């Protein structure tokens, strides 16, 4: 009798839990899901979103659209997600400048750490400095030397991105100056670098991999701890004399604060499974020279907190101002 009663109680508890889940998720998903990318099309963040979209659509059974809403260091698109209804139909897929918005955007209209539910850090990739092959720089030292006697420009994927900040750190160590040209997206920066309109650019290995492999850009320096397999002849910053200097781009996914946990967990699982598909994983890791992370939400929250502290300090030390 006792055993039967215990089973009945457990069954009742399970039924109640299932009812709560159904109440929270309803028939989710039952309509189009949008992934907001807070940058223009053509960059690595946009590409990361579009890589996952078909797998998400297959797993969740609803259309997935990628919506580019660029501007103000990514805060325009981020604000859309922060203010969206937390029903699982609006998500943010963003880039490393996410952690710098409190420094770069005056009167930020949302709380960076309280306004979002972290889902997963997709991956990371070292930054790479590259130039058009007909530029006179064979090494990064050549560029620094040239900057002492004439104006040199470098492009980045945006003001306050980690790429921009690490360039400022190197320039300060070398005691030289260069003109910074921030672009609204990685795609625009790459186009101008390939065309020679900017002397060199810094972007993630994932962004620059196609141009480096095709020979339309020449890599000068990589900012990972070790040389990438795809860049065996390109020195790291440490090898070039910048002791203990590394810089990695990263991509993460967030929802508006308050997404029901069952919805968030289901979306997270579908997202991670999509990136782990062999074809997608190969594209991300081998073709794009990036590393998949795919941790949980709390791990992403802790990571972002460290990024805010580390790079926020660099931005303030270098007096980086909003665009």
TrEMBL record:
<dbReference type="Pfam" id="PF03401">
    <property type="entry name" value="TctC"/>
</dbReference>
<comment type="similarity">
    <text>Belongs to the UPF0065 (bug) family.</text>
</comment>
<protein>
    <submittedName>
        <fullName>Tripartite tricarboxylate transporter substrate binding protein</fullName>
    </submittedName>
</protein>
<dbReference type="InterPro" id="IPR005064">
    <property type="entry name" value="BUG"/>
</dbReference>
<dbReference type="InterPro" id="IPR042100">
    <property type="entry name" value="Bug_dom1"/>
</dbReference>
<keyword id="KW-0732">Signal</keyword>
<feature type="signal peptide">
    <location>
        <begin position="1"/>
        <end position="23"/>
    </location>
</feature>
